[in-house]
Design the sequence.
């Protein structure tokens, strides 16, 4: 039998916490989750500027559904989920501010629904704490209002795992089965390969428990979300194996690559650490990352002791499999890659935090104020570090994307206006900001040839961009040269 503290923490051995019985009880239990989600929306709007221009990857996803810009090259690893997500706004509006606002509100709604998927499995205070921990990470706040897939894989993972546990408890649990399918489909729609890694423990557990409807719901959701990606593989790449091979090539070749240190270097706010060189961030910045797995293991132990192991063990296992490819199989890093793992680890971490809070409550005498002060300082330190990294990252990103705006304005002055083509250094984002198509003759985004570019220059304006320390390609050496910031621009066909 679990002791009183653990029973209080994880809801005892009853099927559901008392607070969730009946509609009024469910609404009371959902209120803290709604508060966390609303605070998350507000924090995004306060700390991530609505005016922050679209990033490289964002321009690729948004350009697929907007009528204001030509569609950029869509490389093998990408999936169409983000494009579908932004289509309700991007299909008719070119406003970055409106898109950011829409995504911030949608991110908050997604967090609320993900936490609701766990209602009845853990007390509302634990779920609210899990949501607050995940929502206060700088990487969550920074990418919540962006047109990127990783946050939505994290939301799908929380929904899928939570509903999976509910389905195990509530046979036949049809609503939970639909939740499993929906969460799996959302993950696969955003990033099919990530969805498989997250779902791996679930795909093993369902047949072990002989819960065939649950296995069918999970497999069906993954298939539904990944179907379009698979169809594209056969239509454009010659088959699924060929697309996976090309995706692996673009990511540097998947295999044994220890990227733990790369991920730590990226924690200081580096959006993409490739190649990942340079010094580690200050230890204060990386401390939470090192404490995170320890706290999660503690939460698992507390849940096991309280005989509610699955509520912590299963999200922990899915977090581990979600993190494996990004810690041990690629040669670079980005903080957003681990968002699904962070979201899932937030559940056992919240269990651990409430266990520690109960232990503090049991302290008597002079030690109690000291312990309470220590916890308050730890919480303040966490929020201070996360907000500092977020502010620096957001400010740096705004400046970088303003550079693209300045280059686009100068290209317009030089006569490079739609319809037009931009090639060379950072051609995809600069092409988007200019309103031009983008082209590359080599690299991960190769989609044209030198002969095709020269032919295009006879019809429309074409600008080739050479980055710092680069040399212009042979086909552009006779074009008119210009200097914009530290870039060399060569233009042909402009009036």
Sequence:
């Amino acid at each position: 039998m679990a002791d009183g503290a653990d029973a209080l923490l994880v809801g005892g051995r009853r099927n559901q916490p008392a607070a969730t019985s009946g509609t009024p009880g469910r609404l009371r239990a959902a209120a803290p989750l709604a508060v966390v989600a609303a605070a998350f929306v507000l924090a995004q709007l306060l700390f991530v500027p609505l005016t922050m221009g679209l990033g490289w990857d964002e321009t690729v996803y948004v350009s697929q559904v907007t009528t204001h810009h030509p569609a950029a090259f869509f490389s093998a690893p990408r999936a169409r989920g983000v494009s579908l997500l932004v289509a309700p706004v991007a299909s008719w509006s070119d406003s970055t501010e409106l898109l950011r606002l829409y995504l911030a509100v949608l991110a908050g709604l997604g967090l609320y629904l993900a936490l609701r998927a766990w209602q009845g499995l853990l007390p509302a205070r634990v779920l609210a704490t899990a949501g607050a921990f995940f929502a206060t990470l700088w990487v969550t706040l920074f990418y919540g209002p962006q047109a990127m897939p990783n946050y939505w894989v994290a939301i799908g993972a929380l929904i899928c795992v939570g509903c999976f546990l509910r389905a195990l408890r509530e046979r036949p649990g049809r609503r939970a089965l639909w939740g499993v399918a929906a969460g799996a489909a959302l993950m696969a729609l955003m990033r099919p390969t990530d969805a498989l890694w997250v779902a791996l423990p679930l795909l093993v557990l369902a047949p072990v428990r002989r819960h065939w409807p649950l296995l069918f719901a999970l497999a069906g959701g993954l298939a539904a979300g990944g179907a379009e990606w698979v169809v594209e593989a056969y239509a454009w790449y010659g088959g699924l194996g060929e697309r996976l091979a090309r995706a692996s090539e673009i990511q540097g070749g998947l295999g044994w690559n220890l990227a733990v240190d790369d991920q730590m270097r990226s924690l200081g706010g580096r959006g993409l650490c490739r190649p990942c060189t340079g010094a580690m961030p200050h230890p204060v910045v990386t401390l939470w990352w090192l404490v995170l797995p320890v706290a999660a293991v503690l939460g698992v132990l507390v849940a096991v002791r309280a005989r509610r192991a699955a509520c912590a063990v299963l999200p922990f296992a899915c977090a581990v499999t979600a993190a494996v490819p990004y810690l041990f199989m690629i040669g670079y890093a980005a903080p957003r890659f681990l968002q699904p793992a962070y979201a899932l680890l937030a559940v056992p971490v919240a269990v651990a935090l409430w266990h520690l809070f109960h232990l503090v409550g049991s302290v008597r005498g002079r030690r109690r104020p000291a312990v309470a002060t220590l916890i308050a300082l730890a919480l303040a330190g966490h929020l201070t570090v996360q907000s500092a990294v977020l502010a620096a990252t957001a400010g740096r990103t705004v400046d970088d994307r303003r550079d693209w705006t300045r280059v686009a304005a100068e290209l317009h002055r030089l006569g490079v206006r739609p319809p037009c083509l931009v090639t060379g250094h950072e051609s995809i984002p600069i092409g988007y900001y200019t309103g031009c198509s983008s082209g590359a003759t080599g690299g991960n985004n190769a989609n044209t040839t030198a002969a095709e570019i020269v032919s295009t220059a006879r019809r429309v304006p074409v600008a080739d961009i050479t980055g710092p320390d680069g040399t212009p390609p042979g086909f552009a050496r006779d074009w008119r040269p210009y200097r914009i910031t530290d870039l060399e621009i060569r233009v042909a066909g402009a009036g």
Observations:
- The chain has a mean pLDDT of 92.
